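Example record

One chain of 116 residues, shown exactly as stored in the release files.
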Amino acid sequence: MRTFFKVVGWVMAAISGLLVWNILPETRAIISCGMVVAFICYGISIVVGVTVKRLIRDELRELRLQSNATACRLELVDRRVTAILRDALEQRQAASMRGALRTKHRQAYDQQRRSA
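Predicted structure tokens for this chain:
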């Protein structure tokens, strides 16, 4: 749709330019200079647009590389933290099992002393 409006705009400019060119011949020098300036500005805008797109693409590529490196580091940290937490959970479960066994042995010992 954008291209369509560009084409329509250029066609309308060309037709109106031809009408003014033929109706008012004394303005031909002004129209010629205006057309040259318009084409130069259009060319410059294309060059600027391409340059800006290239700069943005390069910056986005650099940001993507940085985010990938950060994601890899986060994965490494996540694995380390998970291992530490798993180890702490295993130690806690082992300690609670030892505590339960001590309590059980203590109760059995107390019952033996009472019965003796």
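Notes: Residues 103 and 109 are 10 Å apart (CA to CA).
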